[in-house]
Amino acid sequence: MTDRRTRFAIVAAVVVLILDQTTKSIVERNMTLHESIPLLPFFSLTYVRNTGAAFGLLSELPPALRIPLFVIVTIGAVWALVSYLRQVRLEESWVAVALGGILGGAAGNLICRLRYGEVVDFLHLHYRGFDWPMFNVADSAITVGVALVLLHSLRAADQAKTDERPATEGR
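The chain above was modelled as a monomer; its predicted structure follows.
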């Protein structure tokens, strides 16, 4: 039987993966490549394909090198995240959910890379000439998950410093 941390991480990963793949499928079926649908003055749905990593990094590499590289990096990241999950305290379920979100996002983008050699992006933030690169549900889950894990790490480091302080200090 798996412990609570693992169950939370698996549920989060599956939810993110389903949302990611469903939204990408809806965009692919209902929009043409490069079509943009304004929803708010600063937000549009804009269908693009990204051959690179975040912000299009490494997009110039040939597919024969780029895709295996992304697969290897994803496998390494999954291994690191699962290792980190094993170290999370049982009562820190929110960290397990964050790690699951990262795992689900990584899996969602990996599925696209293996199917198409590129990732479907469609969420577009923009304002008065500023354009943030398009992204998707997987990217959002990875970003939020990483931010939460960093917050956890900073809190843990602060707690460790407090625990190391001599009992007479601060009195």
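The first strand starts at residue 36 and ends at 40.
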